[in-house]
Specification:
Layout (H helix, E strand, L loop, with lengths): L13 H20 L4 H12 L5 H12 L5 H25 L3 H7 L17 H14 L4 E2 L5 E3 H4 L32 E3 L5 H9 L4 E10 L11 E11 L4 H16 L5 E8 L2 E10 L16 E10 L1 H8 L11 E8 H9 L12 H4 L4
Parallel strand pairs: 1-4
Antiparallel strand pairs: 2-3, 4-5, 5-9, 6-7, 7-8, 8-9
The structure holds 3,4-dihydroxyphenylalanine (DAH).
Length: about 375
């Protein structure tokens, strides 16, 4: 890299030597001024002082050796002066940090817009789910979870949907393929509701039980404005001695007021679920019109929000297989289940369920 830069000297008189060395000194000074950072300083050192290929080495091997004897002394003095000059440049560059030119290249224009760092925020589903859970946590409920890939037994049979029972048709089920050699109870499916965790909890834990179970559920439903094949539920289960329907009503009335505001009223409508008897649908007074009747509540003043009921003795009978303490003659309980998307859509006035899953920052950012 450097050999061409050292020209061959043809005359060795004082003027020629002065010019030749001055040119080199100028070059070294200019090079040193542009240095920025320790790597550049080291490259400068190698280029000028490197033992084998450095420029000074070239000067010595080309000029000094070629000089006639009478010019050697003067050439040697100039050579030493140049070497000292380069060494002092190097010392200054190594100690002084980046040169002015290097600093200018790195300078920041403080008038440019900054880099915006986005703050993370809870997804509205997570937020609503946590809110529901904390309402019940404040009542002394603990929180449980269960698997999303569930067996036929927990999802259906132990919840009192016997094989072939028509109530199974109400939950369009996604099943895991190639399970034919297993018995029906052991076949795997994607859980259609969080209710199977009721049984998993009772098998693990003697009464009393007060638990809420948030989680994801799956159904083979076509997606539309209010349906998604994957959605979320919060299940609740309370089992103890002397639990009555009034306890259920009082608990859910309190929970709805905590979630939607203290002016909300609740009413319980007869319904059917295989795992509760009696069963009810809970309706709340329309939060949009206050109960007067509007488009959202189809002029009825009421909005249906969740299912509930007293735990069916047949469910306790399954729990008793593992925990004899679930004797329906001694204990009783209630259960409830609610859809998180539906509650979030009501709370935040969202009309398309698909917005929750689209990952659009303009939508999600509103919940930050
Ligand atoms: N599992 C029901 C469903 O997905 C919801 C439900 C209704 C849960 C009543 C309950 C209950 O615990 O008591 O449609």
């Amino acid at each position: 890299m450097t050999t061409e830069i050292i020209p061959t000297l043809s005359s060795f008189d004082d003027d020629s030597l002065s010019n030749a060395f001055a040119a080199l000194e100028q070059q070294a000074t200019a090079n040193a001024a542009a240095l920025s950072g320790p790597e550049a300083v080291e490259a400068f050192r190698l280029e000028w002082l490197g033992r084998k290929q450095g420029r000074l080495n070239d000067v010595s091997s080309r000029w000094l050796k070629a000089a006639p004897p009478e010019a050697k002394k003067s050439l040697g003095q100039r050579f030493n002066a140049l070497k000292q000059h380069v060494e002092s440049l190097l010392e200054a560059a190594a100690g002084a940090g980046p040169s002015d030119a290097a600093l200018a290249a790195e300078a920041i224009d403080i008038t440019l817009p900054g880099t915006r760092r986005l703050t993370g925020a809870e997804h509205p589903i997570t937020k609503t789910l946590n809110e529901i859970v904390s309402v019940f946590a404040a009542l002394g409920y603990s929180v449980g979870v269960g698997p999303e890939v569930e067996t036929d037994f927990y999802n259906f049979e132990s919840m009192n949907f016997p094989p072939g029972h028509p109530a199974r048709d109400t939950q369009d089920t996604l099943v895991v393929a190639a399970q034919e050699r297993r018995s029906q109870r052991d076949r795997l499916l994607l859980r259609t509701h969080t209710s199977p965790v009721q049984m998993r909890t009772m098998e693990q834990q003697q009464p009393p039980v007060r638990i809420v179970i948030p989680g994801k559920v799956h159904r083979n439903d076509a997606a539309d404005a209010t349906h998604s094949p994957i959605f979320h539920q919060v299940e609740g289960l309370c089992v103890d001695t002397n639990i009555t329907f009034s306890d259920l009503k009082g608990t859910l009335d309190h929970a709805m007021k905590a979630l939607f505001g203290s002016s909300v009223k609740t009413r319980f409508f007869p319904s059917f679920f295989p795992f509760t008897e009696p069963s009810a649908d809970v309706q709340i007074s329309c939060i949009f019109c206050g109960g007067k009747g509007c488009r959202k509540c189809k002029q009825s003043g009421w909005i249906e929000l969740l299912g509930c009921g007293m735990v069916d003795p047949a469910v306790f009978a399954f729990a008793q297989e593992k925990q004899p303490a679930y004797d329906p003659k001694k204990i009783s309980g209630f259960a409830f289940g609610m859809g998180v998307e539906r509650i979030a859509m009501m709370k935040y006035g969202i009309s398309e369920i698909g917005q929750f899953y689209a990952g659009d920052m303009r939508f999600l950012g509103q919940f930050a």
